[in-house]
Design goal:
Layout lengths: L4 H4 L9 H20 L7 H11 L2 H11 L8 H30 L14 H16 L5 H12 L11 H20 L1 H4 L8 H20 L1 H7 L1 H6 L14 H22 L14 H17 L9 H19 L2 H11 L49
Helix pairs in contact: 2-3, 2-4, 2-14, 2-15, 3-10, 4-8, 4-13, 5-6, 6-8, 7-8, 7-13, 10-13, 14-15
Length: about 400
């Protein structure tokens, strides 16, 4: 088969493609900004507009990217160990720390690791996604079934925040969509990993601008219907105040909106290396640590002054972006590596199968760079060398 010009100009598959690191870091910036301005949305229409635009795609986009780098084959020993070291153990560590923070700062004596604190729900969702993907891959039309599950689970009041099950089922279609897009090889086949035509970028800009305008000019309506809670995927339809039989159609519409915005977001992401590209390899550090930095600001009452809400909005956006950058830097990663990238050889029956050193793929598919100062031991050969991104 002859190669197209787009294929010939595409970088080798072994090389790192900036698109995905840029997309990861952009998603993470939106996560931090969304959390940073959350206390302002009750008093500022502008803040609520920014908040709704962000929440209409950023976590589904993260699920999409994670699915893109996930493998659907039978998991190898390494892959199973990584679910424990990259997801389960960081969850246990961070949930324990959050429990202590809430106890000393708020007097909250509740100890319930089955209900994730703040941002930790996504770790549990990723762990379960990894476990169920090989089974979803066995059935026909897995994407359709994922959508059916997402829409159908909203009718069940007993599926809630326990083990993040409500959100897990809610955003499952985006994880499966990412995996299917990779399986269909759409990005590389169309050359979208190295360039996007101007008309496609213009269309993506039009989609984002149109949705932003809809949010801004109908902001009173969105406040009234509590649209933001529909983007969380963490409650049943009855819990959202909508118990009609057709409530599932609303979630389906939200899924379609999320998907369109994910597509627009991915088109607008730069394809070349930027000053922020390297930060895309530290997304889990930012994701797990930024909430601790924002917590004192959110709880101080500084963001609850109604008259200052519109003025604090740009301030908190700048603070959030800077925080994401700082938490992506090498010193922070080195300091918190034992919590974010633990290497507990002692808990496994065969620690020679556990990859040595900090160089490995994180839960969102980003391969972390090696650090020369950390000794490494070559892994033993195994039958399945595929890694679950």
């Amino acid at each position: 088969m002859s190669s197209s010009p787009a294929t010939e100009s595409r970088p080798a598959r072994s090389k790192r493609i900036p698109l995905w690191d840029n997309a990861r870091f952009a998603c993470m910036v939106f996560v931090v900004v969304g959390h940073g301005i959350q206390r302002l949305i009750g008093d500022s229409d502008a803040a609520l507009t920014v908040y709704l635009v962000i929440y209409s795609f950023h976590m589904p986009a993260f699920a999409f990217i994670s699915g893109y780098f996930s493998k659907s084959g039978p998991p190898s020993v390494r892959q199973m160990q990584r679910v424990i070291t990259d997801i389960v153990l960081p969850y246990v560590f961070m949930e324990t720390i959050w429990t202590a923070v809430k106890f000393f700062a708020e007097g909250d004596e509740t100890l319930n690791p089955t209900k994730p604190s703040w941002t930790l729900w996504f770790l549990l969702a990723l762990a379960i996604f990894r476990l169920v993907l090989p089974y979803l891959a066995l059935v026909r039309w897995p994407l359709l079934w994922a959508v059916v599950l997402s829409v159908g689970v909203g009718y069940l009041d007993n599926v809630d925040s326990t083990f993040s099950l409500a959100r897990l089922f809610g955003i499952l279609p985006f994880f499966v969509l990412g995996w299917r897009v990779k399986k269909w090889d759409l990005v590389t086949r169309w050359g979208l990993d190295v360039r996007t035509p101007w008309w496609l970028r213009a269309a993506a800009l039009a989609v984002v601008a149109a949705w932003s305008a809809v949010v801004w000019f109908s902001i009173d309506l969105w406040r009234e219907v509590d649209l933001r809670y529909w983007f969380f995927y963490d409650q049943s339809y009855d819990g959202l105040g909508q118990d009609a039989w057709w409530a599932g159609a609303v979630r389906l519409g939200v899924i379609l909106l999320n998907t369109a915005l994910i597509a627009a977001f991915m088109v607008l992401i730069p394809r070349r290396r930027t000053v922020f590209t390297g930060f895309g390899q530290a997304t889990m550090y930012v994701y797990l640590l930024h909430s601790f930095a924002l917590y004192p600001i959110r709880e101080s009452g500084l963001l609850t002054h109604e008259a200052l809400a519109d003025y604090l909005l740009p301030v908190m956006i700048v603070v959030s972006v800077l925080l994401a950058v700082v938490l992506s830097t090498w010193p922070v990663r080195r300091l918190f590596r034992p919590l974010i990238e633990p290497k507990p050889h002692w808990i496994f029956t065969r620690d020679d199968r556990l990859p040595a050193g900090p160089s490995r793929t994180d839960p969102t598919g980003s391969r972390r760079p090696k650090t020369a100062s950390v000794p490494t031991v070559p892994p033993q050969p195994e039958a399945d060398t595929h890694r679950a991104g």
